[in-house]
């Protein structure tokens, strides 16, 4: 059974800011070691009919430390991601040794507070199958996956950016903060394996939710680090800090 879940994450940011780019880069750096981390195979500009102009990135994830108990995902994961800054991202993940397994995360950013419906253009059947959950970055979770993945301990009810004066995030903050945007994340997972496929799909959904909460909490917590940076500045830093993998990586089984 294919699971479809849409997470809506309201952020006190604007579409033009580079918060997401900075967060992705910094979290990759924090989770990279000699045995685990992210290998970047491709990182280039592209243009097509769906996205227009954007950035294409191909990466191999080796993050077994964060995937305890999921034997299928102890293998490296290939991620093919297309992104158009501030508006649209599509990330498709596959495992080369389990070819029927797919995990797709499609993100659309809107300058609203989470009340837009069907931003992904789903058909009638997909809408019937879809479950929607709103994630509040000012909250924390104590479930298993949040315990494994989460490390951000900032209390946003007391936090205020020294450079922008944004914050604190008090009850109901999503309805009156400016600037504001929402990340609409559509997660589609299909693990058609008898005996464990359904449990794997549920675990992946829970794991993605915990990762979304952690990463978007980091986005806001690091605001004084990235505020004022431009896309060009981010691209220059990216080239210096996350070099392409060695040529032998391109001959991997992906």
From TrEMBL:
GO terms for molecular function: phosphatidylinositol transfer activity. Residues 2-240 form the Phosphatidylinositol transfer protein N-terminal domain. GO terms for cellular component: cell periphery; cytoplasm. Pfam families: IP_trans. InterPro entries: PI_transfer (IPR001666), PI_transfer_N (IPR055261), START-like_dom_sf (IPR023393). PANTHER family: PHOSPHATIDYLINOSITOL TRANSFER PROTEIN, VIBRATOR, ISOFORM B. This is Phosphatidylinositol transfer protein. The lineage of its organism: Eukaryota, Viridiplantae, Streptophyta, Embryophyta, Tracheophyta.
């Amino acid at each position: 059974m294919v699971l479809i879940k849409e997470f809506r994450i309201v952020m006190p940011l604007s579409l033009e800011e580079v918060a997401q780019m900075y967060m992705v880069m910094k979290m990759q750096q924090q989770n990279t070691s000699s045995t685990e981390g992210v290998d970047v195979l491709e990182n280039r500009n592209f243009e097509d009919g769906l996205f227009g102009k954007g950035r294409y990135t191909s990466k191999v994830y080796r993050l077994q430390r964060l995937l305890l108990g999921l034997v299928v995902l102890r293998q490296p994961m290939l991620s093919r991601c297309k992104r158009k800054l501030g508006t649209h991202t599509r990330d498709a993940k596959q495992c080369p040794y389990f070819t029927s397994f797919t995990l797709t995360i499609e993100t659309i950013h809107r300058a609203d507070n989470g009340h837009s419906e069907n931003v992904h253009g789903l058909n009638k059947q997909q809408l019937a199958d879809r479950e929607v959950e709103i994630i509040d970055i000012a909250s924390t979770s104590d479930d298993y996956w949040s315990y494994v993945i989460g490390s951000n301990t900032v209390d946003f009810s007391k936090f205020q950016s020294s450079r922008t004066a944004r914050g604190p995030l008090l009850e109901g903050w999503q309805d009156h903060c400016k600037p504001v945007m929402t990340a609409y994340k559509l997660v589609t997972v299909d693990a058609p394996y008898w005996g464990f496929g359904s449990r794997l799909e549920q675990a992946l959904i829970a794991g993605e939710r915990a990762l979304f909460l952690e990463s978007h909490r980091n986005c806001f917590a690091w605001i004084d680090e990235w505020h004022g940076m431009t896309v060009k500045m981010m691209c220059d830093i990216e080239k210096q800090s996350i070099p392409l993998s060695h040529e032998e990586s391109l001959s991997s089984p992906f």
